Amino acid sequence: MTDVLLIALFAFLGAAAAGLIGAAVLRLLRHRSLIVSLSVVAGVAVAAMLAGTLTVAWAMFLSPHDLYVVTTVVAMAALISLVTAVLLGRRVAAQSHELALATRSFGDGGTFAMPAGQPAAELAALARELAATSAKLDSSRGRERALETSRRELVAWISHDLRTPLAGLRAMAEALEDGMAADSGRYLRQIRVEVERMNSMVGDLFELSRIQAGSLALAPARISLHDLVGDALAGADPLAREHGVRLVGDRIDEVPVEVDGKEMSRVLGNLLINAIRRTPPDGTVAVAAHRSDSGVVVSVTDGCGGIPEEDLPRVFDTGWRGSHARTPPAGAGLGLAIVRGIVEAHAGRTEVRNVQGGCCFSVTLPTA
Hints:
Distance between the termini: 76 Å
Helix content: 55-70%
Number of strands: 7
Number of helices: 8
Strand content: 5-15%
Radius of gyration: 38 Å
């Protein structure tokens, strides 16, 4: 038993010395190729075995012939191990190079394509993660392009919409200044109307900028959805009468919600105003509210005749109007973008779908 322990001790000391030397070499070569690292690992394994064997052989006083035989056997094992390590290292390095080239393609604006062949499990997992990241990045680029396009359209439309009333205001002011206005009261009333419209447009721009900057401060409180919708219907009733549109709100459940009353009133007001202006005279705008599995759903259904399917994904984009008309009361195309921003700030979501004779805008809010 003592001899076995001594042999184990000598073998351990020899292998430990080889291992320490190998660890130092690996540290010095840690920035080199993977082939070099694998070769060093294989060399350390063989050196540890050789050192332990030679230490035990020296302690056991083997004959020179026996020692030569042992050394030859270990040397052959070392050769095979090094060749195997080099081949494995070349294979892994080649797969890593292919993965790097594929990664560079989607980093330069393309999409990631899985390298051909069957890489190692770790590299395959990395490739799958890169493919998922590439898909997310491509989607993000698409949203960024759409946002940039909508911003450019918004700047062009706002410039047009501001230039038109400004030109009219300037002409009316010059006419009043020169005493050429036959009915100065009518001119003054028209100036006030144009100023109110411009003020509303600037207010929408300010609200949208706060939403997009993430600085919209909410003051949530527990409110009855029935009261919230009722107040919005009462506020929109004069506009509905002016356009000859009938408002219907008889399917509203008594559901409590935790929202900012002022901001949600603006959401419902924007949806109702948009629905009333798009609905022809003698049409109906219906409001419904109920509890569902996903939360509290408030819907506004109009009689606009429907939205083209290709435009449905853009309805809540900044500057989208649904028509190319620029005459009042077309607005700046910010109302629905503000609706989406306020609802998302409440951790809700907005949807739109076509129904018979019109479309239905839905707002889903978390339950209180």
